[in-house]
Amino acid sequence: MLLNQVPVFIFLIILSICEAKQLLDEEFGTDDVTSGLCDDFFHGTPWPLPHDSKGRGLARLCQNQIEDGKEGRIVFATMFSTTERIPVYTANTVVLHRDGKEHPRPGSKYWYRVSLALCSSDDHTFDPIESMIGHAEKHEMEQCRKFQAVTEDYTHNGLNLDRGHLSPNSINEQDLEKQLGTFTLTNAAPQFADFNREVWRVYECVAQHTILDYVPGEKVYIITGTHGVALDVNNNPWWMNGDDTDMDKNPVKIPGVYWKAFCYPGNKTHSAWGYAIVQKNENVYRKPDYNEYITLKEFNTRGIITAPFGPSCMDASFGVFSKVFENWDEYIDTKCPSYTKKKREEL
Fold first, then answer.
1. E strand spans, the chain
2. In 3D, which of 56, 57, 58 has the Cα closest to residue 47?
3. Backbone angles phi, psi at 93, to 5 degrees
4. Pairing between β-strand 129-130 and β-strand 58-63 as defined by DSSP bridges
5. Lowest mean pLDDT: which of 54-58, 82-86, 176-180, 212-216?
6. Contact between residue 193 and residue 283 where contact means Cβ atoms under 8 Å apart
7. Greatest distance between any 2 Cα atoms in the chain
8. Of all residues in the chain, what percent carry a pLDDT higher than 90?
9. Residue range 316-341: mean pLDDT, rounded
10. Among 158, 301, 327, 332, which is most buried by a count of CB atoms within 10 Å?
11. How many whole angstroms separate alpha carbon 135 and alpha carbon 78?
12. Residue 208 pLDDT > 70, yes or no?
């Protein structure tokens, strides 16, 4: 009798697995299966999923560029929402050297490129693919704009919104190909200028300088993302171009928060350390405060994404990073002066 029941039992297991996969497909809009194409940019499980995934048309982009018909290397990995036209996050690995050459900031012409991969299909529920950042032909732009923002969507927006990098220009400036790769709107979202140019810029600067100060020449993992939606004065979800007054522009979601998670996995002689920071995207000036940093374990309770890194980082403390807290004001005044202070000094 028991032997006769075994096939039924196995059948029920297979059925439950199939049902679970169907639920995942419906929930996330993409299979939870990766090709390994750009898994190296993740520490731990690749492509952590946002908790608010349903209906966002998520695409997994292995960001590379096309120049003169030649495809470049993959420089980072971006999970992108094709319905909101903004990235959910960009994952990057960074190695900085104290004597490394720093390239100047590229010109704004690079913002006019698009992800050609998002121009080629109406179905983006696929495994990770090469983004192929480049220039589309004029007749292709209508198709391209269905699933991503273009630079014209940001111009004269009347809301004091910048094209806010996720993986920033500055931390990639020792690698020219990576640096150029950050100038794509699949790596940027609407970010209020006072937030972007002041407090967020300082936190990005601190990330860069603490690598140089404490782990030069070693690999760190950084994921920078967006979450939620900003609210307008009437407490309604806020989208750039959302009022349909300019039919030549497409709506682009304004994120409610920006976040950054940092992982140094350690080595035989140095312990792992990491941190996260979550900041509201609003057009106000805020003074940078080291009390805003949280451990990765605390970040994992915020309901933003599944664990961004492997256990060695998720269980780690601030480690040597906490040294920055001891002389915070002096540290940022010396290495990361505010945008307005730098402007005053230039006058």
1. 58-63, 66-67, 70-71, 76-81, 86-94, 114-115, 129-130, 133-134, 161-165, 188-192, 220-227, 239-240, 252-253, 257-264, 273-280
2. 58
3. -110, 140
4. parallel
5. 54-58
6. yes
7. 89
8. 79
9. 90
10. 332
11. 19
12. yes
Long-range pairs, 97-103, Cβ under 8 A, ≥24: 97/174, 97/216, 97/217, 98/212, 98/216, 100/174, 101/174, 102/173, 102/174, 103/173, 103/174, 103/176, 103/179
Instruction: With beta carbons less than 8 A apart as the criterion, state whether 275 and 314 touch.
Output: no
User: For the chain, which domains are there?
Assistant: 31-339 (3.40.570.10)
Nearest in space to 251 (alpha carbons), one of 85, 100, 134: 85
The answer on pLDDT for 31 being more than 70 is no
pLDDT of 225-260, one tens digit each?
999 999 999 999 999 998 766 678 999 999 999 999
Rounded Cα distance between 76 and 88, Å, is: 14
This prediction's pTM:
0.88
User: How many CA atoms, within 13 angstroms, populate the side-chain half-sphere of residue 178?
Assistant: 23
Q: Which two tokens stand for residue 282?
A: 């609003």
340: pLDDT strictly greater than 90: no
Round to whole Å and give the CA distance between 40 and 314.
18
| Pairing mode, strands 70-71 and 66-67 | antiparallel
How many angstroms separate the CA atoms of 335 and 217, rounded? 19
Q: What are phi and psi of 135, to 5 degrees?
A: -95, 125
Q: Please, are residues 255 and 238 in contact by the beta-carbon 8 Å criterion?
A: no
User: In this model, does residue 30 exceed pLDDT 50?
Assistant: no
Is the Cβ–Cβ distance between 174 and 100 less than 8 Å?
A: yes
Distance in angstroms (rounded) separating the CA atoms of residues 261 and 293: 10
Dist CA 29 CA 35 (whole Å): 17
Q: What is the mean pLDDT of residues 75-93?
A: 97
